[in-house]
């Protein structure tokens, strides 16, 4: 939670129903936190989990084997791709 202790120079404003505010106030009170601190720490935990879920690929055993087999198999270019590489090399000026 490094983000929670860095300099605070950004704002986020929320409008909520009174019932939602009461619930957040109650939860913050149970944890001995201010409403702002409770919302910030809760949002940061959720954000970290969400980012991690989207950045990490999870495969079952079968898919994992297929993936690593594909990485381990030498690439074979077809004629069209080989031709495209040659054409690209003609267009590129290297020093």
Would you kindly provide a written description of the structure presented here, covering whatever features stand out?
The chain is an all-alpha fold and 95 residues long. The protein folds into two domains: 2-55, Arc Repressor Mutant (Orthogonal Bundle); 61-91, no CATH class. Helix content is 62%, strand content 0%. The protein contains four helices and no strands. The protein has helices at 18-30, 35-55, 61-72, 79-91. Helix 1 (18-30) packs across helix 2 (35-55). It is elongated and about 70 Å long. The mean pLDDT is 90.
Give the overall form. elongated
CATH C-level class of the largest domain is Mainly Alpha
* SSE succession: HHHH
DSSP summary: helix tally: 4
Compute the gyration radius: what is it?
A: 26 Å
Distance between the termini: 47 Å
- Global structural class: mainly alpha
Can you give the helix content as a percent range?
55-70%
| Count of distinct strands | 0
CATH topology of the largest domain: Arc Repressor Mutant
How many domains in all? 2
Average pLDDT for all residues: 90
Spans where pLDDT lies below 50 across 5 or more residues: none
Strand residue content:
under 5%
Strand count, sense and closure of the main sheet? none
Looking at the overall shape, the CATH architecture of the largest domain is Orthogonal Bundle
């Amino acid at each position: 939670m490094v983000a929670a202790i860095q300099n605070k120079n950004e704002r986020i404003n929320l409008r909520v129903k009174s019932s939602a505010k009461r619930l957040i106030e109650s939860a913050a009170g149970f944890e001995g936190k201010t409403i702002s601190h409770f919302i910030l720490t809760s949002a940061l935990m959720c954000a970290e989990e969400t980012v991690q879920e989207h950045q990490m690929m999870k495969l079952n055993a079968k898919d994992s084997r297929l993936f690593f087999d594909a990485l381990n198999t030498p690439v074979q270019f077809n004629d069209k791709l080989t031709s495209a590489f040659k054409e690209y090399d003609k267009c590129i000026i290297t020093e």
